[in-house]
Amino acid sequence: MNQAGVNEKYKVSPFYVFFLVHSMQTGVGVLSFQRVLAKSTGTDGWISILLAGLIVHIFIWIIYKIFSIVPGDIISVNNQAFGKWIGNFFSLLFILYFFFLGMTVMISYINVIHVWMFEEVPSWAFSVVFLVLIYYIHTGGFRTITGIAFLSVLLTFWLLFVLIYAMEYSEFTNLLPAFHHTLLDILKGTRSTSLTLLGFEMIVIYFPFIKNAKSSQKYAHWGALTTTLITVFVYLVSLVFYSQKQLELTIWPTLSMTSIIELPFIQRFEYINVSWWAIIIISNMAIALWSASRGFKRLFNVQQKYPLWGMSIIILLTNIFVFDIDSLYILNKIIDPYGVLFIALYLPLLLVIIYIKKMRKRI
């Protein structure tokens, strides 16, 4: 049996890949991506989102094509393609990428909490709560993490309809002019959107945990498509609600839109929005840190709880000693462009290498 072989009782149905992909892609980036995108492509930003979504589908196809040739996870594929030592080096890069992605999500969300709700509460206090909760979720195994992803989608989907309230104050002429940006501008917008749509690549580590994994590809595509369409919807609503200049200057356009909602029993509806968003963020962090700790387990043959403890300590120390906007900026720069570029270049190269090796064996 392949080293990445997983007992059948720990696996999840192919259908849940939809929730694993979609919940991981829908993170804190949805709250703020509009500002950067508006600067590069303005009213044509939705084209960049659709193009980025198309690229995501291509990479999902590449991932499943890789595993159709070499069963297992990314650790097995890297060893098959490059040998033990070089393969382990590339596997370590994946693990670090998953870790930094999880830490970026946590610190970004804590920053949102600080600005919108509890400015005086130290960041390490929030990180302790999140890390304890994530560790508890991890003790239930991958099936529990999948359940959290499932619930995060079902329990937060109603937030999408909250944005419809903002359309009462919208100016639809803000959508014009259309199709007036160059291809280069559209591509720049696609690059700025890439960080928002990341998360699908976690498939490379939890692939062995899917029953009849090959049949789950369509659900992965459906999950990515759902994320793309929601992102387009959020961006279009933002365009008609804000003017071009306002959108470029608003740090969290999605949250700012919900702040106009007033109910008889609550005046600050964005408090509900930020708090409810924690369900999504917990799912993000749980999947990312599980992927990193699972990679460490496979690579160094240790119990998965030990690397999880180590990563939790690093995240906690980061929140205690160096948490500020600059540290968040550095983490974002690690993920984008370096993390995005690594995924974009490495996966196609890996597919070519293992395909060539497969053909040579036939000869």
Protein structure class = mainly alpha
Quote the distance from N terminus to C terminus.
25 Å
Q: What is the C-alpha radius of gyration, as a whole number of Å?
A: 21 Å
**Order of SSEs, N→C?**
HHHHHHHHHHHHHHHH
- Rough outline: globular
Strand content: under 5%
Number of strands: 0
> How helix-rich are the residues, as a percent range?
over 70%
Q: What can you tell me about this protein's structure?
A:
This protein is mainly alpha-helical and 363 residues long. The protein is built from 16 helices and no strands. Helix 3 (45-69) crosses helix 16 and helix 5 packs across helix 6.
Brief write-up:
The protein is mostly helical. The protein has helices at about 15-25, 35-40, 45-70, 75-80, 85-115, 125-140, 140-155, 160, 185-195, 205, 215-240, 245-250, 255-260, 270-300, 305-320, 325-360.
